[in-house]
Amino acid sequence: PRPRGEAPELTADERRIVTEVMTGQTYAQIAPRVGMSESGLRKRVAALMKRLDVHSRPQLMAKLRDLDLGR
């Protein structure tokens, strides 16, 4: 297991998604920019949230900032 507070390895797709999520826009706005359906994007974000042990999009954004991800 990864030590607490250490940033996880993100794929190129995950980095692109994270960057868009950090803009605060809706899934409907982000999905076409990352080449996914809205439901597919929601599933990918949900998987990231599970990996990062957060339960909401605001928590995800805070965690990404803390880990210096999503730029």
Task: Please state the average pLDDT score.
Answer: 89
Strand content: under 5%
User: Strand tally, please?
Assistant: 0
Total count of helical runs of at least 4 residues:
4
N- and C-termini, Cα separation:
25 Å
Q: What best-fitting shape do the alpha-carbon axes yield?
A: globular
Please render the helix and strand layout as text:
Layout: H1 12-21, H2 27-33, H3 38-51, H4 57-66
Helix pairs in contact: 2-3
Structure characterization notes:
It is a single chain. The protein has 71 residues and is mainly alpha-helical. 58% of the residues lie in helices and 0% in strands. Helix 2 (27-33) packs across helix 3 (38-51). The longest helix has 14 residues, at 38-51. The relative contact order is 0.20. The model has no long low-confidence stretch (mean pLDDT 89).
Short précis:
58% of the residues lie in helices and 0% in strands.
Please give a handful of descriptors for the protein shown:
0% strand; 71 residues; globular
